[in-house]
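Quick note —
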Amino acid sequence: MKPLRYYQTFRFKVVASITLVHLILMLTLVIVVVQGQERTMDRVLHKNAESLARMVAIASRNAVLTENLGTLQEIVRYALHKSGVRRVRITNAQRVVLERRGPARVRARWLTVHHTIRVGRYPVGLVTLSLSRSSVLRQMAAARDTGLLLTLVALILGGGAGWLLSRHLTGDLEGLMRDVGQLGGNDGEEERRVQVRRHNEVGVLSEAFNAMLARLARARRQADIERRKQAESERLACLTETAAAIVHEIRNPLASIVSGVELLVDDKGISETDRHEFVAIVRDESRRLNAVLQNFLKWTRPAETLREPGDLNAVVAQVVEMYDLTLNREHRHVFRMELAADLGPVSFDADQIRQVVWNLLLNSADAMKSPGTMTIATAAEEDWVYIRVTDTGSGVQGSAERLFTPFYTTKAEGTGLGLALVRRIANAHGGWVTITNLSPGAMVVFAITREEGRDRHTVGG
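Predicted structure written out below.
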């Protein structure tokens, strides 16, 4: 199983979740507190500014009525000495400025208040005060910095608490994961278990996992027993089939040999011609019996495959020529050679390829009851090299795959090992073999890999 990255673990998700919750809560708290404190200080500042403006209005009432500018200047200078006051302006009822101190324009962050100068119910002037909010802003910045510092501390504490909590929660899970990962190396043990560390949800899961392992172990033991029984049954069936095939193949030539020998021993009334005929029968049947045993030995004792670079076309042509000079005299089949001009480098076991071509020719010749045509071709395609044998016979009746089964044959005197050996040699060369029906006849394709150098191994089944 692919190991988890840290950000995929449950521990990381717990720590990240707790830290994120702390961050959101602390930032919200800081924003609410700072904004609340700012509103409170603004209200206090506004109240103080209104009180000062009222005092200036009362003090300057007579001076405004008499337009005593000296007194107004003293009052304005007094007001400017108060904390935070940046601008003072006094006007009469007609909005004419009688006295003004401070900048001509009011800045954006200043707090400005107005108070009317009255005599009885009648307004006679207006006092305008502008105060700086710098003290409020400094206190807000200090409060904000303090809040951020507390937020950072809370994040550290929350992250640490989350890590400790996640370690407590995931410790048992990690232990369970380690135990499960180590089970792969304990295949030989009859009983495999994981450790139950604590009586919690993970402990319950571990107990359930152990119960499942016990059931799997029992099922595996039962499956092993059934598999051994099946293998033994198949082995006995194979031995029975092999013995029956050998008995069938040996019975007829052995009976002919016994009959011929008895007639030769009891030579009463046997002519010299008959004697020679019986001797020929004994000789031919003995050779046939020897061929059966040789094929069986080839099947039971696979030969070692030796792949060496060579001329595949030359080997194929040699086998076809030998077959034509020996076994083809009776059938008189016509051979058509279509060998590729350039197969490229090919490594193969020459003796085994000769056996393959010989068996394919025998198979095609037996498929043609009357004289016909056999086409032997070679070809190459990328990493594959092909030998194709095509005949004009009756084709394959039934399943072509069954022809490659050991000891299966449709011939009266066949052993059923020829095509089975061909497939075994194909497998040893990293290839395959197939039979396809044509109209008329059939085509056998034998394919091997194009392999350089030497590759020694035993021919597989």
